Amino acid sequence: MNNIVILTGAGISAESGLGTFRDAGGLWAQHRIEDVATPEGFARDPDLVHAFYNARRANAAGARPNAAHHALARLQREWRGSVTLITQNVDDLHEQGGSGDVMHMHGTLAGAVCGQCQHRWPAPQEMATDDTCPACHAPATRPDVVWFGEMPYDMDIIYDRLAMVDIFAAIGTSGQVYPAAGFVQEARRAGAHTVELNLESSGVGGLFDETRLGPASQSVPLWVT
Ligand code: BV8
Q1: Is pLDDT above 90 for 116?
Q2: How far from 64 is each of 24, 39, 131, 166, 193, CA to CA, in Å?
Q3: Binding site for Zn(2+), residues?
Q4: For residues 184-212, average pLDDT
Q5: Which of 54, 105, 147, 148 to mutate to test the pocket of ligand 1 (most atoms within 8 A of CB)?
Q6: So what's the pLDDT on residue 225?
Q7: Closest residue by CA, ligand 1 atom 31
Q8: Binding site residues for substrate, as ranges?
Q9: C-alpha 32 – ligand 1 centre gap (Å)
Q10: From the CA atom positions of the chain, what is the Rg in Å?
Q11: How far is the CA of 199 from the centre of ligand 1 (A)?
C-alpha cells in the first residue's frame, strides 16, 4: 500500500488567487477554448493567444502556494513509498510549495517552444508573435503548453505509475478534460483506493471510493496527516 499517485487541477491553485477554468467567471468564461487553447486558435490569432498566456504568466508571477501545495510537498518528503505528483496546472505553485519532480502533463507557463524545431527555453514574461526561436531563428515561438487536440506530456510514465498505484487522489479538478479525467478508471483497474478532494463532486466523482469536499487548503492538509 505504498504507491501514491496524485492528480491536481486548477482548484488547488484557486486559493492562491489563480483563476480556475470552469467555475463562474473562470478563464473559459472570458475566452472561447477554441480561440485560446487550440493550435487552430493560435494559427488564427497568435496575438490573442500570446495576450491570454502573458496575462496568466503575470498573474501566476504574483501567486504564492497555499497550505495544499505545502501539504503535498510534505507528503513527498515523508511518505515511505513512492509519490507521483501529476498536475494539469501550468503554474509553478507546486514547485514554490517545495515539491520536486512535478509532472506538468499540460506543460508550463514558464516554458516556450519553437513550433518549427521543437527547441525549448524559459519563456520571457511577455511573449509576442514576432519573437524568433533562439535556435533556428524561425518566427514560430509559442507557449510550451498542451492545447486541445495535442498529446499531453509524459503519458507513458503516467500510465506505468497508474498500473501500480495503491492510492490515487484527484485534487481540485472538474474531471472534464481527458485523458486526465480517465486516470481514476486506470487506478480502479489497478485495485487502488481512490479519493477525490474537491469543492464539489466532479464530473467523474461517482467513480471515487472516497470524496472529501471543501477547499483544498483545508482538505489536503487533513488528508495528508
Ligand atoms: C488529447 C492548456 C489526443 C494549458 C488545457 C476532439 C478533438 C481532440 C481531442 C478531443 C476532442 N474531444 C474531446 C477531446 C479530448 C480533449 C478533451 O478532453 N476535451 C474536453 C473539453 C471534452 N482533450 C484533449 O484534447 C487533450 N489531448 O486528447 O490528445 C491525442 C491523441 C493522439 C495524438 C495527439 C492527440 C489535451 C487536453 C489539454 C488541454 N489543455 N490547458 C492551459 O491553458 O492551462 S486543459 C485545461 O483544463 C487546463 O489544463 C486544466 O488543467 C484542465 C482541466 O481543468 P481543471 O484543472 O479541472 O479546472 P476546472 O476549472 O475545470 O475545475 C476546477 C475544479 O476545482 C472544479 O471542480 C472546482 O469545483 C474545484 N475547485 C475550485 N476551487 C477549489 C476547488 N477545489 C478545491 N479547493 C478549491 N478552493
Answers
A1: yes
A2: 22, 30, 29, 31, 31
A3: 114, 117, 133, 136
A4: 96
A5: 148
A6: 87
A7: 151
A8: 53, 56
A9: 13
A10: 17
A11: 17
Atom 75 (ligand 1) nearest CA: 11
| pTM over 0.90, yes/no | yes
Just give the CATH number of 1-16+65-106+152-225: 3.40.50.1220
pLDDT of 19 reads: 77
- ipTM for this model: 0.93
Sign (positive or negative) of CA dihedral 63, 37, 111, 58: negative
**pLDDT for 30 beyond 90:** no
User: Where exactly are the structural domains of the chain?
Assistant: 1-16+65-106+152-225
Ligand 1 midpoint to CA 78 (Å)? 30
For ligand 1, atom 43: residue with the closest CA: 37
The whole-angstrom distance between residue 186's C-alpha and the CA centroid of its chain comes to 18
Q: Give the position, in ligand 1's atom list, of the atom nearest the Cα of 53.
A: 43
Measured CA to CA in angstroms, residue 183 lies from 99, 162, 177, 200, 216 at distances of 21, 7, 11, 18, 20
Sign of the CA dihedral 30, 218, 90, 2? negative
